[in-house]
Amino acid sequence: MRRVNPKNFQNVLNRLESMADGIAKHQSENNFPATLNENERKKMKNDLEEARLDYETKQHLADQASDKFQKLLKEINSQLSKDVDTLRGFYGKDNKRVADFGVVIVSKNRTPKKNKPENKHS
Q1: Fewer CB within 10 Å: C terminus or N terminus of the chain?
Q2: Which residues touch 107 (CB under 8 Å, ≥6 apart)?
Q3: How many CA atoms lie within 13 Å of 42's alpha carbon, on the beta-carbon side?
Q4: Close Cβ partners of 46 (under 8 Å, ≥ 6 residues apart)
């Protein structure tokens, strides 16, 4: 999720404020551009500040929800590992009944393979 760039945010706020101040100072001049409106720039600034506050509030809630989710996922994974150990202890590592619980059967003949270093001849 994107985070608000505080420097960019503050820069835009400052520019809006300066623009509104400049408009207020010069709007009475002859042929001043009608598209430049002090109240519109002040409203833009206010809208941006409110949107950031809303964003930060929701971001905080999303961070809390993510932390809660990650904690729960870790706890459940841990419990499932304990359940598998319990089932293997009860039935035996290679008993086919453990597969009924979604557990991978460990074969008696299965030995971990070690990677042998390759002999390189130059």
Answers
A1: C
A2: 94
A3: 8
A4: none
Residue 67 lies in a domain: yes
Return d(Cα 67, Cα 31) in angstroms, integer. 57
Q: Is residue 40 part of a domain?
A: yes
* pTM assigned to the model: 0.64
Q: Which residue spans within the chain are E strands per DSSP?
A: none
Task: List the pLDDT tens digit at each of the 122 positions of the chain.
Answer: 677 788 999 999 999 999 999 999 999 999 999 999 999 999 999 999 999 999 999 999 999 999 999 999 999 999 999 999 999 999 988 889 999 999 988 766 655 445 555 655 55
Between CA 102 and CA 97 the distance in angstroms is 10
> What total number of domains does the chain contain?
1
Compute the C-alpha angle 84/85/90, nearest 5°.
95
